[in-house]
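Researcher: Go.
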Amino acid sequence: MHELGIVFHIIRTVEDVARQNNVARIRRVTLQLGEVSGVVESYLQDCWKWAAAKSAILPDAVLTVETIPAVTVCEDCGEQYPTVRFGRTCPRCQSTRTHLVQGNEMLIKEIEAVEDEDEVQNSAH
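Model: Structure:
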C-alpha cells in the first residue's frame, strides 16, 4: 500500500508550509488526483485519517480529493480523448501512437488553515 507513503509526504509538505506561514492548525487539504494515478482514494483517505490524527497541526484536518480526468492525445490525428473509456487506441483513427497528457498527477491544490485561535485552543482540550 503506497498510499501511506504518499500521505506521509503530503503531511510533511503541509506541515512545512504551515510552519513557514505561522499557521497553528489546518482545517482542510485539497488534493488533485489523476484518474489513472494508481492511487486508491479510499486507501488514501484511511491512511490520512490515521496519520493526520498524529500530527499537532492536522489532527482534525479533512482531506478532500478532486479527480483530474485522464486525457490521451493521438500523435497521428491529434485527437484528444478520455483515456479510461478508450485506452491507448485512438477512437478516431485507431492508431496506438498515443500518449497521456493528463490524469496521472497528484497535486496539493489548497491548504485551508484554522484562523480562529479560540477554535485551535478548544480543539486541543
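Model: Residues 3-20 form the longest helix (18 residues).
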